[in-house]
Design brief:
- It contains 14 helices and twelve strands.
- By secondary structure, it is of the alpha/beta class.
- It has three domains: 99 residues, Probable tRNA modification gtpase trme, domain 1 (Gyrase A, domain 2); 138 residues, Four Helix Bundle (Hemerythrin (Met), subunit A) (Up-down Bundle), CATH 1.20.120; 160 residues, P-loop containing nucleotide triphosphate hydrolases (Rossmann fold), CATH 3.40.50.
- The strands form two sheets. The chain has a six-stranded mixed beta sheet. The chain has a six-stranded mixed beta sheet with strand order 8-9-7-10-11-12, with helices on both faces.
- Helix 4 runs antiparallel to helix 5 and helix 4 packs parallel to helix 14.
- The radius of gyration is 29 Å and the shape is flat.
- The protein starts with a strand and ends in a 7-residue tail after the last helix.
């Protein structure tokens, strides 16, 4: 980290303002050359910005953040100038001429991690906060950025170290005047940690679904009105609607925010037996998306014959919702003697809008119940889940070990698994994976 980096921190293109960030040992010299002299720390100063020839690039605000009390932990600066492409390009050329280089994606935050300003879980929260599209996503990211997730794991790690100390004492000092049950005293700590880890592993999907979106599949026979219903729910023409059966051949995904939570609605191909190759592939994809969805809406044409939807009946799972569409056309649906009526049922009309408020309210209640349960922060990344599962399995094995030295080794490995989440160990093995998804300038 001996070089000095810079990057536009605002999106490219025509804009009223642009912000360029600088970080590294040569930041002070670069700012002084650009603005005439360093401004007072943490105070915005209006300066004329000049290139190496002395020509004015622009007039803008310069902020100086001396390290280590800065975002990256090293000398930093921000230049706020007009957002015209020519202005920003001139500043970039000036900084390059001074020997600075353009930052890689996430390099400012990576330096913050390497300088101890953030741990790895907090660094990931920075990216999540930038990408947040809903209130729930930003709330989860802010809690993680504030250290909520790290404190939870650090608490478990501290208990593991305490348990390991007792186990190792029994092994290393058998002849010392120690309590006879010194190794056994570790068991209550390990039992407590194991219960917490098992609960955390079970809760992994909740954090992921808050971050990535709760998946809702619309499934049913051709011409049941799935595409029309999708369009009404998202309030735009996301899917093509025609009277021809089999119009939808692929998965049409549309985002929808429900009570602050991101959801993904998927319009799928109508489920039926078919020999037409393209439609058959669409049906296969529909069933695959439906199996992986968090919730399935079974869209049934209330006026159609019962055999129009019964081909998909075997795929119904507990908690699915039956949506009787086109309910404005009939007084009672023709469902025959199937088990579909045992599901929670909503009668709607995608044409008139009847019942849509009730359906939306039901979806909101399901999403809130699924995603708001438990205490934030939940694990948000696949690597978190992997480490939690590893730690849980190791603690479980330690509890079953008859020999304290073997149990101590399993406890030590469990602590290291938790340390990987915050980046205490094996950091270089995961840094590229973590920061690859960041934007330039962060």
């Amino acid at each position: 980290m001996n070089d000095t980096i810079f990057a536009p921190a605002t999106a490219p293109g025509r804009a009223a303002l642009a912000v360029v960030r600088i970080s590294g040992p040569a930041a002070a010299g670069a700012v002084a050359a650009l603005a005439g002299r360093l401004p007072a720390p943490r105070r915005a100063s209006l300066r004329k910005l000049r290139n190496a020839s002395g020509d004015v690039i622009d007039e803008g605000l310069v902020l100086w953040f001396p390290g280590p009390a800065s975002y990256s932990g090293e000398d930093c600066a921000e230049v706020h100038l007009h957002g015209g492409l020519a202005v920003v390009d001139s500043l970039v050329e000036t900084l390059v001429a001074q020997g600075l280089r353009l930052a890689e994606p996430g390099e400012f935050t990576r330096r913050a991690f390497q300088n101890g300003r953030l741990d790895l879980a907090q660094a990931e929260a920075v990216a999540d906060l930038i990408d947040a599209e809903t209130a729930a996503q930003s709330r989860q990211a802010l809690d993680q950025l504030g250290g909520g997730l790290s404190r939870r794991y650090e608490g478990w790690r501290a208990l593991l170290i305490e348990a390991m100390a007792g186990l190792e004492a029994a092994v290393d000092f058998p002849d010392e005047d120690l309590p006879e049950d010194v190794a056994a005293r570790a068991r209550p700590h390990l039992n407590e940690i194991h219960r917490d880890l098992v609960a955390a592993v079970a809760d992994v999907d909740r954090g992921r679904r808050v971050r990535e979106g709760f998946r809702i599949a619309l499934i049913g026979a051709p011409n049941a009105g799935k595409s029309s219903l999708l369009n009404r729910l998202v309030e735009r023409e996301a899917a093509i609607v025609t009277a021809t059966p089999g119009t939808t051949r692929d998965i049409i995904e549309a985002p929808l925010v429900l009570r602050g939570y991101k959801t993904l609605l998927a319009d799928t191909a109508g489920v039926r037996d078919t020999v037409e190759a393209i439609e058959a592939e669409g049906v296969r994809r529909a069933l695959a998306w439906g199996r992986d969805a968090d919730l399935r809406l079974w869209i049934v044409d209330a006026a159609a014959a019962e055999d129009r939807w019964q081909e998909a009946e075997a795929l119904i799972e507990p908690g699915d919702i039956l949506v009787l569409n086109k309910s404005d056309l009939v007084s009672a649906p023709n469902l025959g003697a199937a088990r579909i009526p045992t599901m929670e049922t909503v009668r709607v009309s995608a044409t008139t809008g009847r019942g849509l408020d009730a359906l939306r309210a039901l979806l909101e209640s399901r999403v809130v119940a699924a995603l708001s349960g438990g205490d934030f922060p939940a694990a948000t990344r696949l690597r978190h889940a992997e480490s939690l599962r590893e730690a849980s399995a190791l603690v479980e094995r330690a509890l079953a070990q008859p020999e304290p030295e073997l149990a101590a080794e399993d406890v030590r490995l469990a602590a290291r698994a938790l340390e990987r989440i915050s980046g205490r160990v094996d950091a270089e093995a995961v840094l590229d994976r973590v920061f690859a998804s960041f934007c330039i300038g962060k």
